From TrEMBL:
Subunit (UniProt): Part of the Bam complex.
PROSITE patterns to which the protein is assigned, alphabetical: PROKAR_LIPOPROTEIN (PS51257)
Keyword terms of this UniProt record: Cell outer membrane, Lipoprotein, Membrane, Palmitate, Signal
Gene (UniProt): bamB
Pyrrolo-quinoline quinone repeat domain ranges (all copies): 51-101, 121-329
Protein name: Outer membrane protein assembly factor BamB
HAMAP family: OM_assembly_BamB
InterPro entries in the cross-refs: BamB, PQQ_b-propeller_rpt, PQQ_rpt_dom, Quinoprotein_ADH-like_sf, WD40/YVTN_repeat-like_dom_sf
Main location: membrane
Pfam families attached to this UniProt entry: PQQ_2
Listed NCBIfam families: assembly_YfgL (TIGR03300)
Family the UniProt entry places it in: Belongs to the BamB family.
Domain of life where this protein originates: Bacteria
Length: 405
């Protein structure tokens, strides 16, 4: 059994005892913890939202607990599903350009029907004509983004739950067992691997995406740290603790920091469960400020504000220069929101009942609500230009634009 199996086993047991702490397990939260705040019957939107299109990709994430998020490159939207579907759509209309299924001819079209299908996870990454995508059974595929034909495959040690990152001739991949890999973008050959070493047995389900800039790869770890690696060889440059993991129980000591981080100028922003929202100088790793804040999701930045969702699904805005809080909205409390995205002058989040919500960036007031489906939305919305793309757990993708009428 691969090295990631112990962690997967522990997560399964942990889900039964403490499902509220596992990002993505919204159904448990809905049944066992606080009921979601009802949406007001008399709500009147202050901005009009136009739904451009919706389409589906296989069965989506299903019950896997992963957060599948599409990507858009040069007007094409790429998306995948855990049941082996991979598609390219016109981002403006939602019409499919090509579609591939790993179930059609065995494992991703190579014809070996004795091997399992590709259980895609984390969402695809695209750069030029290369598409890279990972799987729940520890593989990464290099694929021709123009037509979906296979190029190469790489076998890793554990699940790939985060989207790969293509940068500087490498496909950068993190796995559920705490490793980060640098794979050759042309062949899939392993160039280097960074091994975190000890990975906590109890942690949140999933990994945040890697971030690369100026020859450095950044990520938040399962043990509450923000880590910087050299991109050319995987050597660790520095790390900063985002959470102390203090408490009397295993749940209280849970201090996962592997949600998404972001870079604004030369400043990194990151957060941790049972930890802090922090700002760090990227080149040196020097902490700039910290604000106690527990989050399981990604962050967004706009102007002088950082937007985040805490572990009770309250949406917050902080001053990015000093970390002081600007506003808090609890109208969506316990609706188990996604991480935030910024579309124009609005913060966009999805919730456990398939609703998409827009909040004003200035004061956090709820401005609009649209329902994509009746299924949970777990992945952070994706904003490209003036359009936001949202995906639910069953693979339904919707595109929305703020109306000027």
């Amino acid at each position: 059994m691969k090295s990631g199996s112990m962690k997967r086993k522990s997560l399964g047991l942990f889900a039964i005892a403490a499902a509220f702490a596992i990002a993505g397990c919204h159904s448990f939260k809905k049944e066992n913890i606080q009921p979601p705040t009802p949406l007001p019957d008399d709500f009147k939107p202050t901005v009009q939202v136009e739904k451009l299109w919706s389409n589906s990709v296989g069965e989506g994430a299903g019950d896997s607990g992963v957060r599948l998020r599409p990507t858009v490159v040069d007007g094409v939207l790429y998306a995948d599903s855990t049941d082996g579907k991979l598609v390219a759509m016109d981002a403006a209309s939602g019409k499919k350009i090509w579609s591939k299924s790993s179930k059609t001819h065995g494992w991703f079209g190579w014809g070996d029907k004795k091997r399992p299908d590709a259980f895609y996870a984390g969402g695809p990454a695209v750069s030029g004509d290369l598409l890279a995508v990972g799987t729940l059974d520890g593989h990464v595929y290099g694929i021709n983004a123009k037509d979906g034909s296979p190029r190469w495959e790489a076998t890793l040690n554990s699940e790939v739950l985060a989207s790969p990152l293509i940068n500087g001739g490498l496909v950068l991949v993190r796995t559920q067992d705490g490793r980060v890999y640098g794979l050759d973008a042309g062949t899939g050959e392993r160039r280097w691997v960074y091994d975190q070493g000890s990975v906590p047995l109890l942690s949140l389900r999933g990994n945040g995406a890697l971030l690369a800039a100026n020859g450095v790869v950044f990520f938040g770890s399962d043990d509450g740290k923000l880590v910087a690696l050299r991109q050319d060889n995987g050597e660790k440059l520095w790390e900063q603790k985002l959470s102390t993991g203090e408490g009397r129980t295993d749940i209280e000591r849970l201090n996962d920091a592997d949600n998404a981080i972001l870079l604004d100028g030369t400043t990194l922003y990151g957060g941790a469960y049972h930890g802090n929202l922090v700002a760090i100088d990227g080149p040196s790793g020097r902490p700039l400020w910290a604000h106690q804040f527990s989050t399981m999701d990604g962050l967004a930045v706009n102007g002088n504000a950082i937007f985040a969702v805490n572990d009770e699904s309250q949406v917050w805005a902080f001053d990015k220069n000093g970390g002081s809080d600007l506003w808090k909205n609890d109208a969506l409390k316990y609706r188990w929101l996604t991480g935030p995205a910024v579309q124009g002058n609005y913060v966009v989040v999805g919730d456990l009942d398939g609703y998409v919500h827009w909040l004003q960036t200035g004061d956090g007031a709820l401005a609009a609500t649209k329902r994509l489906s009746k299924k949970a939305i777990r992945a952070q919305p994706l904003v490209v230009g003036d359009v936001v793309y949202v995906e639910d757990v069953e693979g339904r993708i919707g595109a929305y634009r703020l109306s000027t009428r």
